[in-house]
């Protein structure tokens, strides 16, 4: 669904727009006039005292304020200086108001987003916040608005100069606390696959048999690591909390597909789009410093500017009234730091991706489309009116229908159109499909993220994590006293029946949620005996855990390699070794398959010579090597020749780690039916398909990279292009050239620790990547390192717009400055803000 959303957000331009933009010159002054003032003094209404902002050569600001209000007001001001276009765009996503900016082309997207109703949920959350958190949000908003005051659009960001050609009347509105709260909702969608999985699972039921699904979709590998193999609370599980664990899986109306859907495991969800993350922490008994070291690199879609904004927030005197001394990565649009460290603890996130959304099939009254059945009775839906403004002054009225489960998703979600024709589910004659999702219920995730900034120890950390509702994250922890820990937070539904893999009947109470797992029952670990904790979207717990968190974990290849690197290091582990780990390009899939192909006879001397490239290869997917280019091409054709004849085109293999496991098992069955291409008269086996795929791979590389295989390079195929999320996808080359940067040769690949993912059903181009990397040394916070591409600034042509790309792609870092003396010594700009 995320791919469809991204596609919907592309801006449709015209040649006239391009000519107008070029004719206007976009001269040097036009480009520079939106760049922020970084030195000198600025007077701002609303400040209580003087604030100082130091920026290093990478554009990272460190804010020093005497009070909490000024600290977060200045963060809002600085965010707006560097990233307001990004902030404006994301708040329009969160509120379902893209048509206001980009016109009728975004109406379908707005309808879907309004149906989800994030702004309505965020408004409820805002009303429930404590006074201090509200005050911080308001101070942040005041800072954003102080920057916007009296600035013309072109002086805010270059994108507005272009947008004015498309939408002359558009004017950015003031920032509100509500806009910050919708950020968490947008991230929940980006990191969730639950309801998409259900739709896709149901569609798959029409084209694959139960036996085929059993062959393709496999359980989590037993030999791959669990995040918490022995949870600290393992002996305190309250098994009475699990409601009806042996209840029947499906209603009789859905029984024909129950066995098929119960085996479907992640092909079309998380592992299809590849989004994941790495984090790990070691204790002092494994480190060279005698204190913990913590690493984190979240994997998100490639974009420009970065989704992250690095910042230091410092109270000049840390007191109970101003308790912040924190450094790390924020979101432009939210106060505080999302991932980083303060003066006592460090923390990191990776996605759990639990199953926290269900689709309910509702029976609709044939005489009244706004009534649905509940236990044999017709019940009125709740109707919510939405008015969608469109660029140019038009508007559209939308009625969102709600059942007891949530909004009717089938009214606006394209994947559910004609659903009765796409699936083998026996649907009622008059039906609609409603969504229940934890992200559509008021929660406290913003407050939890924000409060982590000031916690001082493990107990405070866990108590803060208790409020982290959505999206559920693997939280890792370390402190300067030497402790390490892990906590999984989040609302995890307890279902009366079923396992959440497929749409269920909504007209009875048989499939209702009976509440959420108590926080005390969620897995955690504190100072585990192995001296490390590794999270890489792999399974959190094993089969002995009494509750269902998720059916479709990442298959754990990245986690396996990280654990392997930690355990194989006999010498004490240093920060330098952590850098090598984050840049590790070892391809465990190649390590499994290449030895098989090296033994298969080839009748062509040309192919034999090329195959010798693999002899002696250490399976590192380095950008300057030929071997990974050859393997990637072979892998692409192996998947196509094995599975394209059996699977619908929309679901052809993307090559992610679930396919590592599927093919890894199939290669042990040389005569499996999957090797046979049913479109040909002969019967193929494994060796024949391997030979065929290898031949096609060599042919492709000779066409694209030349006849001399010694000159092939993985980085010539596997490139990263950083595209502006809006105008950088306009389809108008001159405009795209203003905002996009690339292509850049890149190492790594999907399900590799250096996780630069590509889609084997499309191209070798990077589609998601480590969106930032950080390594925190708890023995000396001044030794902390970081990097995030493409750069800190959101202003095209600014020196900090793309200056981090080279460091990032070579897995190099810059220091994450901490002590004020070091900040001032490395400062390239000093700005003073004073009350007006």
TrEMBL record:
InterPro entries: Ntn_hydrolases_N, Pen/GL7ACA/AHL_acylase, Penicillin_amidase_A-knob, Penicillin_amidase_dom1, Penicillin_amidase_N_B-knob, S45. SUPFAM superfamilies: N-terminal nucleophile aminohydrolases (Ntn hydrolases). The keyword Hydrolase applies. GO terms for biological process: antibiotic biosynthetic process. Its cofactor is Ca(2+). Ca(2+) binds at residues 198, 355, 358. The keyword Calcium applies. Keywords: Calcium, Hydrolase, Metal-binding, Zymogen. Pfam families: Penicil_amidase. Binds 1 Ca(2+) ion per dimer. The active site is at 277 (nucleophile). It comes from the Bacteria. One of its GO terms (molecular function) is hydrolase activity, acting on carbon-nitrogen (but not peptide) bonds, in linear amides. Belongs to the peptidase S45 family. This is Penicillin acylase family protein. It comes from Aerosakkonema funiforme FACHB-1375.
